[in-house]
């Protein structure tokens, strides 16, 4: 991995989106259903996704993070409150905000290359510039040899990398990732962190990354937002000031990283306790996992 | 398919097992059918059926008979005609119902009431409705495949993973592009399955419709394989009944094989699973 960093030390200008862009979530609430069955998933939630930073949001599973993504991406609208991008309210999906979903959304009927080229071709921009960028990204995510394979022929980690490339070729102003590495084994996961961090360091576009994994959060984040349980609110923000490029060993050896980890765990533990008294299944799971980790 | 592949297939274990199974089947059939003339005891059920050797003999006499091949041709033309008409109308109909809510709400209830009516129940009405017997048979065959194709296309298009659509949308694709490059290929496997099932039903329907509608022109040869069987039954030639049945089996097999190949060609990504 270190050799790869040196090779591509100079940022690839083509990948950088022209604008700096920030998203402000202001007092947003989201209620599903109505009447006695109404369920408030997000309540008075406010936070900012700062421009040209990698913001990671962490919270107990099932706490409405994915709903937040649906709102920011514009697939759904908030019940109250407002989400703005560069001051303008978000009214629908757009190519300025690309979403990487939990499960692979690669098109099974297209090869890796055609998948990556989907966005440019859909917009009628499939020219030389796009094909060169596609080749560059294929190399960057280590899938040159799998260029003409279908997604079903790729491993889980390869699929995630292909999807990263498919998103990045569109030069989104903001990339939104919804637990993209969930379900991968630990080895592939750490490999994915390095690939992804490396790609991020290349362009430094605004990234919004959602996870339940504390190590992942600390390794990747510039800013870390910690969420409360349902109804979701932003509880605390930590600036992760560990210098880049980071190494996987950093999160285990670095004193600063360990301090942050302790702080995050304490906060998440409090959240879990709160909802545990309310009888949440997710919280009970978290408590169990937490007490195992603390040993 | 190249020579090595063909060789592998012919000498494979699966092929060998198939040959053994068919041989045993034929031997049991032959012995069962001949038992009465050999030992004076009629084996129940199987003893009433003409022996395979007699069937093949009768078949041998038919190979040179143009009217036998005419029956093949007529049935094939009806099946393919009805089937392609069902594809040409059914696929766009199903797709349009899947993507357009208003059209779905308007067309679906009527469709669902008509769907459970067996195609054969349409035979009398269609004889009254259509000017020629040929058209009524074609219509009934068409119905056999149409409903199955529409239901499969509709189901396939409706069950597309929502994230494919959201991903395409957020990459800036137009509605038309999403339809052409996401909805259509995502529905293709269902289209292939619907067509294969529809093709099977078409053969069932065409044979029954031919039995009902009679010989048509050219001295009974215009009646197709269904009429061929019926005619053999009326004429008391039991060997020819079996010849007709096996002919339909072979014809159906070729139709399905053709569709399977076409389907495999259209959906190459499914082979990699």
Mind telling me the CATH superfamily name of the largest domain in chain B? MetI-like
Order of helices and strands of chain A: HEEEHEEEHHHHEHEHEEHHH
**Based on DSSP secondary structure assignment, what is the total number of beta strands of chain A?**
10
Shape of chain A: globular
The chain-level structural class of chain A is: alpha/beta
Low-confidence regions of chain B: none
Question: Largest interface, counted with CB-CB under 8 A?
Answer: A-B, 26 and 23 residues
If helices are DSSP runs of H or I spanning 4 or more residues, what is the number of helices of chain B? 11
CATH class categorisation of the largest domain in chain A: Alpha Beta
Which CATH C-level class of the largest domain in chain B is it?
A: Mainly Alpha
Question: What is the N-to-C order of secondary-structure elements of chain B (H for helix, E for strand)?
Answer: HHHHHHHHHHH
CATH topology of the largest domain in chain A: Rossmann fold
Distance between the termini of chain B: 21 Å
Percent strand of chain B equals under 5%
Which descriptor suits the 3D outline of chain B? globular
How would you portray this structure in words?
The complex is a heterodimer of chains A (295) and B (273). With 295 residues, chain A is an alpha/beta fold. Chain A folds into two domains: 2-96 and 174-249, P-loop containing nucleotide triphosphate hydrolases (Rossmann fold, 3-Layer(aba) Sandwich); 106-171, no CATH class. Chain A is 40% helix and 20% strand. In chain A, the strands form two sheets. A six-stranded mixed beta sheet of chain A has the order 6-7-8-3-9-10, with helices on both faces. In chain A, helix 7 (186-203) links the parallel strand 7 (174-178) and strand 8 (206-211). In chain A, helix 5 packs antiparallel against helix 6 (156-168) and helix 8 crosses helix 10. The model of chain A is unreliable at 1-11 (pLDDT under 50). Chain B is an all-alpha fold and 273 residues long. Chain B folds into two domains: 1-49; 52-268, MetI-like fold. Chain B has helices spanning 3-10, 13-39, 52-63, 66-99, 101-114, 123-129, 133-158, 162-170, 175-213, 224-235, 238-266. In chain B, helix 4 (66-99) packs antiparallel against helix 9 and helix 8 packs antiparallel against helix 9. The longest helix of chain B is centred in the last third of the chain and has 39 residues, at 175-213. The two termini of chain B are 21 Å apart. The model of chain B has no long low-confidence stretch (mean pLDDT 88). Chain A binds chain B through residues 73, 75, 93-95, 97-99, 101, 103, 105, 107-110, 118-119, 122-123, 149-153, 166, 170, and chain B through 161, 163-164, 166-174, 177, 181-182, 185-186, 188, 267-269, 272-273.
């Amino acid at each position: 991995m270190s050799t790869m960093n040196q090779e591509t030390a100079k940022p690839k200008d083509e990948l950088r989106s022209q604008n700096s862009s920030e998203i402000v979530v202001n007092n947003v609430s989201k209620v599903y259903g109505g009447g006695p069955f109404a369920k408030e998933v997000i309540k008075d939630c406010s936070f900012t996704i700062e421009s040209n930073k990698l913001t990671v949001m962490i919270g107990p599973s099932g706490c409405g993070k994915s709903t937040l993504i649906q709102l920011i991406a514009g697939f759904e609208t908030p019940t109250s409150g407002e989400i703005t991008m560069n001051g303008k309210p978000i009214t629908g999906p757009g190519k300025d905000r690309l979403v990487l979903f939990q499960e692979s959304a690669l098109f099974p009927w297209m090869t890796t290359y055609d998948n990556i080229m989907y966005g440019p071709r859909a917009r009628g921009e499939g020219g030389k510039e796009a094909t060169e960028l596609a080749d560059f990204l294929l190399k960057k995510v280590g899938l040159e040899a799998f260029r003409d394979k279908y997604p079903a022929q790729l491993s889980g980690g390869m699929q995630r990398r292909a999807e990263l490339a498919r998103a990045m070729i569109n030069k989104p102003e903001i990339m939104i990732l919804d637990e993209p590495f969930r379900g991968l084994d630990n080895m592939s996961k750490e490999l994915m962190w390095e690939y992804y961090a490396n790609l991020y360091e290349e362009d430094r576009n605004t990234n919004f990354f959602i996870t339940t994994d504390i190590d992942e959060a600390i390794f990747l984040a510039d800013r870390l937002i910690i969420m409360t349980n349902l109804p979701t609110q932003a509880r605390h923000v930590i600036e992760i000031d560990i210098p880049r490029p980071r190494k996987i060993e950093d999160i285990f050896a670095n004193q600063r990283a360990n301090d942050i980890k302790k702080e995050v765990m304490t906060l998440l533990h409090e959240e879990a306790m709160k909802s545990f008294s309310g009888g949440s299944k997710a919280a009970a799971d978290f408590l169990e996992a937490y007490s195992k980790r603390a040993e | 398919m190249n020579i090595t592949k063909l060789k592998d297939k012919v000498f494979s274990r699966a092929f060998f097992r198939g040959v053994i199974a068919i041989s045993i089947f034929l031997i049991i059939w032959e012995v069962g059918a001949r038992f009465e003339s050999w030992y004076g005891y009629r084996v129940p059920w199987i003893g009433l059926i003409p022996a395979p050797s007699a069937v093949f003999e009768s078949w041998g006499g038919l190979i040179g008979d143009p009217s036998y091949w005419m029956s093949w041709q007529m049935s094939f033309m009806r099946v393919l005609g009805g089937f392609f008409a069902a594809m040409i109308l059914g696929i766009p109909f199903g797709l349009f119902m899947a993507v357009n809510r208003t059209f779905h709400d308007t067309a679906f209830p009527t469709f669902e009431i008509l769907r459970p009516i067996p195609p054969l129940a349409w035979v009398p009405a269609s004889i009254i409705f259509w000017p020629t017997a040929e058209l009524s048979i074609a219509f009934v065959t068409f119905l056999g495949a149409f409903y199955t194709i529409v239901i499969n296309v509709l189901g396939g298009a409706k069950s597309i993973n929502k994230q494919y659509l959201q991903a395409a949308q957020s990459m800036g694709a137009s509605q038309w592009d999403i339809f052409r490059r996401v909805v259509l290929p995502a529905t293709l496997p269902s289209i292939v399955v619907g067509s294969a099932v529809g093709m099977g039903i078409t053969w069932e329907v065409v044979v029954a419709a031919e039995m009902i509608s009679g010989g048509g022109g050219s001295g009974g040869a215009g009646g197709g394989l269904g009429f061929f069987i019926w005619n053999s039954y009326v004429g008391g030639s039991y060997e020819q009944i079996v010849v007709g049945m096996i002919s339909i089996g072979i014809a159906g097999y070729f139709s399905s094989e053709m569709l399977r190949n076409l389907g495999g060609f259209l959906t190459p990504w499914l082979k990699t699973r």
